[in-house]
Model the fold of this input.
Amino acid sequence: MAMNQPRYICCFLLMLLCCGGKVAYSQDHFDRIAANIIQYLKADADTAKVQKAVSSFQSTMLPNGSWADIAYASKAETNWVPLMHLTRLKQFALLLAMQQGGQQQLEKQTLTGLRYWLQANSKSNNWFQNDIAAPTALGEILILLKVRKLPSVGLRDSLLTGMKQVNLIKAVGANKLDIAVHFIYRACITRDNSLMDTAVNQAFMPVSLSYKEGLQPDYSYRQHGPQLQIASYGQVFLNGEYKVASWLVGTPYAMPAEKLTILDRYLLDTYLKTIRGRYSDFNIEGRGISRNDVLDRLPITTQGGKNSLLALARTVNPDNARLLDEAEARITQKQAPAFQVTPAHAFFYKSDYTLHVRTFYSFNVRTVSKRTIRTEAGNKENITGKFLPDGATNIQVIGSEYNNIMPIWEWDKIPGITGRDYAADQKTTLEWGERGVGAFTGGASDGQYGLSVYGLDYNEVTAKKAWFFFDDEVVCLGAGINSYAREAITTTVNQSWQKGPVSAFVKGKVIDVSAGISTSELQWLWHDGIGYSFPDKGKISLTTGIQSGSWAAINANRSADILSGKVFKLWFNHGLDPVDQSYAYIVKPGLSEKEMMAHPTSPIRILANTSKLQAVEHTDLQMVQVAFYEAGTLTAGSYTITVDQPCVLFIKNVLAKNPVLYLSDPTQSLTDLYLGFSSAVFKVNDPISVSLPQGDYKGSTVHIDLNPR
Ligand code: CA
Done:
């Protein structure tokens, strides 16, 4: 037996020599990448449909390889008809790749069609058609035809030459990735290592935290300047990057581990956490909020079949399969919205957005500052979304609370906002987003708890709005509400689909208010699994009637059909010319009517609600959260907090010997500040110097153990 061993070694050496080291190794990878791309292109194709389309186009193709219904000389910028020539040939190539052999006539017609494309030399006046749409379609055709080794080298190279005339390096954003994709096709077809290197490097370049647009250091996503776009452009980014990464898995061109970590974190910790059950937060869609079904996330589990976003993410990193399966089970509604949801809290200081997730609910807030841009309108979309970023609160328990409600919303009563109550919806004046106003927008977070603030100063209305996030409740405070506008000022608590009865506690009695109410005596109210309590009462109105509207009124590209439905709308009336008015309400999502009626002792103490200072203590959690709009002191029972600069902070274990501080600078302008803290069991003699994060991390939270022993 031992004698055989050298022979095996010889064989192995011989194999190595035959394969020829690196070059042969890479060549195998080109085949593998091409096979992955072909599999991707075939994955969402329906054979019967492709067959039907192909036989129809085969019969109408002229002998010279053209079609009579295509104006090859067209230079149109949109709906550029010559592109149809390539989409038809792509169907031909797809069918050839799907079937094993035969189809000589189809092979012949495909080649004639490709030769005609060269001859026609069609060009659009829109660079996108020439530099992205046409080369992509051509690349896909050539990759699909690889299966049958069809085009001659001469024809192939002439077609590839046309695809080269694009500057990949200079392209930005989503365009860069689109161009990189057809560079990858070309590198695969020509087995060109250095071209593949360039294409892949460029394709993965946006997976980085240092871009002005795109993914941010706080893992939010911005587009069109500093504008929140987590689901809209952020989703295009996810789809594109996972698509390319899935083609390259297991090859030397695979996405580098450090980039994959970034991409996965954006998907898992930001994007998927904005979804409750099947539906996403209405705050993250950009102007897409005005499109029907935009909140429905079912497509990320099904669209493209095996090419769905979640399927691609699973292919790229099987280690995430469990988390992705759980998300898919919630989105497809095979499991309840609470299924495997773990608590999380994040303040995105680059985009002025707060995410607060608990097993039984989500409560997210959209704000804006002079560092960011208000929600955009454009291409005749989101016509009435003028006030969307003014502290909009997305409160979801089931998930469908706002699904497709947009056409019938009263748009100056977006949930959570404070603003003027107009008789009619106001149109957005500036397209593509208006720069925000005010510096004091920020939040502090430890990943579980936190508070966020918004210094509203828009449309002749000012207010200091703050949200204090705990486990079972979110406390919403507003102070310094001032306006000289002609309209009355309101703060909207919610405006969602009306579902089931509404009960309220008024003058010490539980009453049914399903038909609406207007009162100054409301203590709490319950509707559709959400409780609202009003510790300081206030002039509060509830309507539950039918509201009507159309998609066309908010998005000119959509249907003008009139829709209507019952809407639960609850708001504070601050009246005309309010001076230093305030509001306070506590939202308890995921609560039954019975639990609300049990009226448990509230663990919430509102310690201050003025335009200088807002503070809330949670006695069960031993946590105090404070917004200091100016330097000052908070004294609450046995403890005192002093700061020499405006900031937001919270202290855990506030009454214990080991208090922990979380603090941030909403103005993103300070380098350091001094903090004093003392309680019955904790004393520091000198104020503590707190250094604030700088550079890309301005506005993020500092964590300090006040007693590190
Ligand atoms: Ca109104």
